[in-house]
Amino acid sequence: MTRLLIVLTLLSIAGAAQAQTRTPASPLAPPQGNAEPVPTSALDGNWRGTSDGGSCNAPLDYVLTIENGFVDGSAYDNTAQGPKPNTHHGPPPAPTPGLWQIHGVAKNSGPFSLISVASVKGSDHREGKLSAQSDGGGLVVTETGGCRRTARLQRR
Predict the structure, then answer these.
(1) What is the distance between the alpha carbons of residues 123 and 148, in angstroms, rounded to a whole number?
(2) Which is more confidently placed, 59 or 39?
(3) Full domain range(s) for residue 146
(4) Rounded CA gap, 60 and 149, in Å?
(5) Residue 136 lies inside a defined structural domain of this protein
(6) Is residue 64 part of a domain?
């Protein structure tokens, strides 16, 4: 009985080893070692700038990074301040977001859309849409709603 158990164990190990043998590469598969070049965008780089105040009278400082056409960055309000003492004993005004996260995909020509999401606490979820376009050596980012701020960014 123990001999039968040993033989079955050896056969199962041999079968598992046989199943792991390497198959030849498909003729349709790309050759290994020759990585395809990563596509780049004419807008790749680091961008910085400040917007006008828009209807909210609150300018934003933009910092964007575009890498292979993917946009990632933030916009923040330097005038945003924390809570202040309430001398009128009334309800405090709603805080405005001081930090926005920005994401999207850049196009070399023509306008492209970006999404901005406010970094706020609690269940107050705020989103905005931005439109961006290359303008000479710069990048113009405009809010399509909300305060309608416009920022002119320069490559750094």
Answers:
(1) 24
(2) 59
(3) 45-79+96-155
(4) 8
(5) yes
(6) yes
90 inside domain: no
| Alpha helices per DSSP H over the chain | 2-19
pLDDT tens for 29-52 read 555 666 666 667 889 999 999 999
Please report whether residue 58 resides in a domain: yes
CA distance 145 to 135: 21
Interior angle at CA 86, CA 82 and CA 92, nearest 5: 70
Q: Which pairing describes strands 112-118 and 45-51: parallel, antiparallel, or unpaired?
A: unpaired
Stated pTM of the model: 0.66
Burial class (CB in 10 A: 0-12, 13-18, 19+), 106: buried
Q: Nearest-5° angle of CA 101, CA 107, CA 111? A: 80
b/e per residue 57-69 (b: at least 16 CB within 10 A): ebbbebbbebeeb
CB 133 within 8 A of CB 140: yes
Distance of CA 106 to the CA centre of its chain: 11
